[in-house]
């Protein structure tokens, strides 16, 4: 079975000008999490939707997650690690902002992953991103002063991110 790609948006479904939406338009065969209460970040319900998609997948899944969607993806992927080909973690939201204890999401991720973080992200400091990179035992790509790596921070189609995804999917660790 061939691998598929699953887009897991953040709050407000990542919006039409968000890089995830650009990528989904460019690759319409990619799947995207839908039917979510996008303005209500709830780890249990969001991760259940991701877990449902993983459970239904016939092959391995490359997950492309942003912000709170990264937290939901990590929570779900732990239960379906055998289904996860890779996980691109972009501008994760700090679990502490949602009263989620670090222990709930801590521990090594048992599949290839890359954490892309910004030095001036209002949702997670670079220091916390470094902490999570160590917790999850995944490489950290420092995107510089890139804000929340979304449409509001000027990322649009974000071709650099697509290149990182391609490297991750190819197993190339030269980030």
Topology:
Elements: E1 4-8, H1 19-26, E2 31-32, H2 43-56, E3 61-66, H3 68-79, E4 84-90, H4 102-105, E5 113-117, H5 126-136, E6 140-142, H6 159-170
Parallel strand pairs: 1-2, 1-3, 3-4, 4-5, 5-6
Helix pairs in contact: 2-3
Q: For the terminal residues, how far apart are their CA atoms?
A: 28 Å
What are the secondary-structure elements, in order, as H or E? Answer: EHEHEHEHEHEH
Structural class: alpha/beta
Overall pLDDT, averaged?
A: 94
Can you summarize the main beta sheet? 6 strands, parallel
Fraction of residues in H or I helices? 25-40%
- Determine the number of helices (DSSP H or I, runs of at least 4 residues): 6
Strand order of the largest sheet: 2-1-3-4-5-6
Strand fraction equals 15-25%
Uncertain residue segments: none
Molecular shape: globular
Q: Give the C-alpha Rg.
A: 14 Å
Count of strand segments: 6
Give a description of the structure.
Helix content is 35%, strand content 16%. It has helices at residues 19-26, 43-56, 68-79, 102-105, 126-136, 159-170, and strands spanning 4-8, 31-32, 61-66, 84-90, 113-117, 140-142. Strand 4 (84-90), helix 4 (102-105) and strand 5 (113-117) form a beta-alpha-beta unit. Helix 2 (43-56) packs across helix 3 (68-79). The longest helix has 14 residues, at 43-56.
Concise description?
With 175 residues, the protein is an alpha/beta fold. The protein contains six helices and six strands, in the order E-H-E-H-E-H-E-H-E-H-E-H.
């Amino acid at each position: 079975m061939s691998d598929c790609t699953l887009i897991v948006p953040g709050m407000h479904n990542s919006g039409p000008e968000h890089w995830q939406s650009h990528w989904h338009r460019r690759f319409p065969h990619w799947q995207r999490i839908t039917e979510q209460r996008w303005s209500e970040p709830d780890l249990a319900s969001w991760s259940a939707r991701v877990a449902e998609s993983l459970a239904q997948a016939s092959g391995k899944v490359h997950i492309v997650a942003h912000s709170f969607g990264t937290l939901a993806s990590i929570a779900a992927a732990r239960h379906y690690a055998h289904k996860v080909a890779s996980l691109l973690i972009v501008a994760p939201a700090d679990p502490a902002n949602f009263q989620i204890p670090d222990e709930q999401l801590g521990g090594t991720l048992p599949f290839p992953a890359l954490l892309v973080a910004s030095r001036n992200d209002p949702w997670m400091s670079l220091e916390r991103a470094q902490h999570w990179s160590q917790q999850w035992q995944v490489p950290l790509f420092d995107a510089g002063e890139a804000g929340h790596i979304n449409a509001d921070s000027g990322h649009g189609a974000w071709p650099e991110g697509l290149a990182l995804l391609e490297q991750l999917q190819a197993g190339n660790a030269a980030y």
